Structure formats: structure tokens, C-alpha cells
Amino acid sequence: MEDGCSEDPLLPRSLDSLHNEKNTMKRRRPSSSNHALPKDILLHEQNDYGILDQHPESLSQNKLNYKQVVIFLVAYISMGVLCFSVVRNQITGKKTNEILDAIYFCVVTMTTVGYGDLVPNSNLSKLLACILVFAGMTLVGLVLSKAADSILEKQEILLVKATHLQEKLGKSEILKQVEAYKTEYKFVVALSLLLLLIILGTIFLYEVEDLSLFDALYCVCATITTLGYGDKSFSTRAGRLFASFWILISTLCLAQVFYCLAELYTERRRRSLVKWVLTRKLTITDLEAADLDQDSTVSASEFILYKLKEMGKISEEDIAPVMQQFKNLDIDQSGTLTKSDLLLTTSSDIQS
Amino acid sequence: MEDGCSEDPLLPRSLDSLHNEKNTMKRRRPSSSNHALPKDILLHEQNDYGILDQHPESLSQNKLNYKQVVIFLVAYISMGVLCFSVVRNQITGKKTNEILDAIYFCVVTMTTVGYGDLVPNSNLSKLLACILVFAGMTLVGLVLSKAADSILEKQEILLVKATHLQEKLGKSEILKQVEAYKTEYKFVVALSLLLLLIILGTIFLYEVEDLSLFDALYCVCATITTLGYGDKSFSTRAGRLFASFWILISTLCLAQVFYCLAELYTERRRRSLVKWVLTRKLTITDLEAADLDQDSTVSASEFILYKLKEMGKISEEDIAPVMQQFKNLDIDQSGTLTKSDLLLTTSSDIQS
């Protein structure tokens, strides 16, 4: 249900764009040395093109923000509430306030908690519940995971600031720190939020719903995991109002914790592989394999490509089409691209 | 809950390894031309090192197979069944066979369906249920998503074979086809399986549990989404036996369909970006930016690095440590790695 890769190439991260500003400035400074590999040349941003030349989707995708998510969510719940207000007589169970019950039923259904304290008992209401749960799963899975991700990212920065308060880090240093231990910070933030929500839910159920402390915690666990046996649930007006918000946030939060945990595991293994690739001894066989243009020397870019392939970061499938484009552009077939190739392309464009 | 990136760098895919075999053979053939970029040089496998030099984790991770998953699952359910056999008097609800009920309760709990037809009613049994659901979520999320992935991959090959039956494709052609439309095939396979499971579940509930066809379908929907209101559930012996397997498989299958859908969406957008990056016009600014070693020409490897960065496939964070290693290895500071650099490294190793 979660949108797999958080490293979405089309959603430029806010951290990246900050990097980019810095680097653009760096690149404009006239380069003093004109030989081997100055450091700042390596720091091109991921999307190194001007604003007019931007990929159309990358602009529009950038705009999927909180506002849109909130609008989606409100629209969805409103529609659900409207439907269930119409068929309210076809739902059995303990009722409180008409609209409150509809909202509560919507949230309990779309998060798949499904206590069963309110149950549809006609074909129409059953059909509506089925539609609601599928639509809810899609919405929660596809849209909110993105929102949660960016919310967590903002919290991370606060966390780093708090833990390094005495050191007075600059903004760029904080961003660097967050970037390096991104996954770890995200996990800690999600876990802290979850604990807070668990405590909040337990206290509420204990105080308002008159459960014992143990039963309150049991009900919290059964809810956030979306188990929802329904032996304990929210039966008062205040309870259902609270539940409508609390269930939505806490189920998402637990899912995010599990997601971060999986990410953390993958990331750790990736780091271990990267470390191994970078520290293992280079052999002559490696040199020969890395020597892409077969000139018996391995340039920096050849070395980087070779090592990134070894790390599994890139594969043949990624390289093959780019290589094809390189060959097409290399009109004078020199094995390198120069300004003369570009001029030849332009003139052939004009001729055709 | 899903393990985010399916492109796990440490789990070499079976398809890749088949590619690799082919390429290794290719490389051993003496190269006839010795200038610009023969195609097969590009086809190094992702982990281009001998078997003795293999990263320790990549070997062990490769072995997480069905067997392990089944052992995990059986061990987990056995433990759950054992626990609930001990506290069986502390669970209320309609009972059938003692062991069957324990298995059924375990599955309903670990998949977070939570009908509520069997409910723990003592502190001990409630605690056990809480532990069970968290452990179950972890198990289902972390382990089974991987297993499902590789099961689907095998099915894909069958699907391609079936759809191209008249064309008599060779094995490598099938693999190529699967690789190119991996995400699409995975989605179709998961969706077909889900539909099959829905039909199977509906027929079973209609025939064995004596529900109307509509109610049977409603119960199926409420179950596979893990909603589990509990107004309709499995109450007979045969029903609970069937449910124990069917719920486990169908909930995983629906989750996989949603996961594939998200993957498909990301993949489509990635392809659109790749296409855009490869077709947009190259400018002189691009050439200058891509020219890593500032020799006024752009080699194939420089061009590939530049384009992969533009696609968002790789970032500065990936490149920086490799660049550092390159500088360390480039002992004679020529800006390229040659055999002499390797010899210098070895001799300094001996001296120290």
C-alpha cells in the first residue's frame, strides 16, 4: 500500500533544492584551475537544467502539498458522511449524534479498523461500505504516505536542531546532518509521535470511555493496528469525535513506523555494501573492466560508473539508452562529445 | 508496512544473474576492436567481482527463500496456537474445534482482520492478542512481501510465455520482455490472483456458510481489506479451516495489488522523465557541466553520469565517496587510474 520508493526522482526534495542553490552559485564563480577534477564540478544538482527547460511533470508533481491532501481527505470524508447520512437507518449499532456517527463510521471503515459497533445491514449500505473501504485504502496508501513523508522531514530538522542546540549549527550543517542520517531521524520522529498518540489515546479512553487502564491500552493497540475486534470501542459522543481524528492519525503513524523500520533495514544493508565496495582492494581485472573507452586508463567518471554499478545503484538497463543517445550525438564519431558535435547537429537540423 | 524499495541492491534478482552469465561469457571473448565503446563492455553485471571476493551479506541475503518464509510462518502460527490453546477458556465467542479455532483466531488477528467473533476476555489473553498482532504485522510486512515478490516474478514468466505462445520465444527473450515491463506484468499477475481469490471466497461463503451471494461478496470485501466488521464471518468448522489459509493469502494479495499500483505509477513517471531527459536538446551549457575532468571534451562515461544525475538515478551523495576513493587511489595524481597506480599502492602496502 505504501508508495514503495521514497527516493522519487520526480519529487525534488526541499533539501536538494537548497543544495542546488548553493551549487549554482559555486559554478558561476570562474574556475581557477583547469585540470583534474575540482570538487565543485561534482556538485551539480540532480536536475541540471534551467527553469524554461523543466520537465513538465516535475513541476506539477512538486505541488502535491498538504493543502491538496487536506482537500482530498475532506472531500472524501464529506462524501462518505453524506452517503451514510442518507442511509443512516440502514446501519445498526449504538448511535449518538447523527453526523458524528457518520464521520466516525467513515474513519473506522476507511482505515480498515472496522470495530463492528456500527454495522451496515442493507444491501445499499453494505455496497457503500465496500466502496468506501477500497477508496479509503487507495487514498490513505497513495496520497497520505507522501504527506506523512514530508511532514516527518520537517520534524527531522527540528529534532536535529534540538539535539545539537549547544553547538549552534548553521542551516546548511543541519541539512547535511539530516541528509546523512535521514532514515534514522525519520524513524525516531515517527516512533516518538506514535508513542505520544498511544499515551493520548489510552488516557482518553480511561478518562472519557471509563475503561480500565489495561483495557484502554488494549483498545488502543487493537485500533492502531487496525485489528478492531470491536469488544471495546468509542461509544460516547466525545469519544467518537476524538476517535475520528485520533484513529486516522495513529493508524497512519504506525504504518509509517513499520515503513521506516523496513527502510532502515534496507539502508543499513546498502551502507554496508557501499562501505565494502569502497574499501575492497582494486585489482587489475577491475581496472580493465572499468575502462569503458579502452584507452588503458580509467578516468574519474569511468571509475564512478564502475563503482556505482557494483553498488547496484545503476544497472545496464539505465545505461544502455543513454549510451545510445551518446552515439547518436557523437556525429564525428570521435568517441567524445565536443562543441563541434553540437554544431554539426544544429546544421543538420537546419538542412533537414 | 511494505518494504519500500523493491529494487533492493543486496538481493540480486534471478533475472539479473541470468543476464550476467551471458555477459561474462561475452567478455571472455577476445575483443576485436580496440577503440571507442564496443557495446558489450557496457554490459557488466551489477556486482562485478569473483565468487571469493563476494560481499558477505549479499550471499546470505540471497538465501531468504520460500522455505525460510514457510518455516517462519509455521513457527509463528504454532506459537500463537499453543498460547491460545492454553488460554482457550479466556476467549469468548462461538467455538468449533479447539485447535482449528486457535489457528483461525491467530490468522484473523495477525492479518488485522479482527472480526470480533472470537474475542479475548482476560488480561492475559488480551496481552497475547496485542503481542500477536504486532508480531504478525512485522512478519507479514517484512518477510512475506519479499516472498510475494519472488512468487510473482515466477508467475510473470509463465504469463509472458502464455501470451507469446505462438511466437515461440527463447528463454532470454522472455526474460528481456519480463524485465522491460516488469511492473506491468507484476500488477496483472497480482490482480488476476486477487480476482481468483475473491471468486473462490465468495463461492465458499455462499456454499458452506449459507450466506446470500451478495452477503458473501460483502464478507469477502470486508475480509481482504482487513476491515472485518464481524457481522458476517466464518462460523463452521470447514469455514474456519478454509479461512485460515484464504485470509492469509488474500489479504497479502490485495496489499500487493496496491503496492504494484503505486509502483506502476512511479515507474510510468520515471519512464516519462527518462524519455524527456534523453530527447531534450543538448546545449553547450550541458556540455560544460558534463565535462567532469575539464578537458573540453565529454567522454561516454561523463555523458552517462551527467544524464543519470539528471534522471535523478544518482546524486552527489552517491558520487562524493567514490570520488574520494578515486583520489586516494590516484597516487601519481595524473587524474586517471592506471596499472602504475595499482603497483604504487601495492609497494606502499609492503613498505608499511
Structural key phrases:
homodimer; 352 residues; mainly alpha; Helix Hairpins; two-stranded antiparallel ribbon; 4 strands; elongated; disordered N terminus
- Structure annotation, total helices of chain A: 13
Structural class of chain A: mainly alpha
H-E order of chain A: HHHEHEHHHHHHEHHEH
For the largest interface, the chains and their residue counts are: A-B, 134 and 136 residues
First CA to last CA of chain A: what distance?
Answer: 50 Å
Describe the structure.
The structure is a homodimer of 352-residue chains. Chain A is mainly alpha-helical and 352 residues long. The first copy, chain A, has a domain at 66-271: Helix Hairpins, CATH 1.10.287. Chain A contains 13 helices and four strands. Chain A has a two-stranded antiparallel ribbon with strand order 1-2. In chain A, α7 runs antiparallel to α9. In chain A, 39% of the residues are buried. β3 of chain A pairs antiparallel with β4 (336-337) of chain B.
Layout of strands and helices, then pairs:
The structure is a homodimer of 352-residue chains.
Chain A: H1 14-28, H2 56-61, H3 66-86, E1 91-93, H4 98-110, E2 118-120, H5 123-163, H6 171-180, H7 182-207, H8 213-224, H9 237-279, H10 284-290, E3 298-299, H11 300-310, H12 316-329, E4 336-337, H13 339-351
Antiparallel strand pairs in A: 1-2
Helix pairs in contact in A: 3-4, 3-5, 4-9, 5-6, 5-7, 7-8, 7-9
Domain Potassium channel (chains A, B): 72-150, 193-266
Membrane topology (chains A, B): Multi-pass membrane protein
InterPro entries (chains A, B): 2pore_dom_K_chnl, EF-hand-dom_pair, EF_Hand_1_Ca_BS, K_chnl_dom
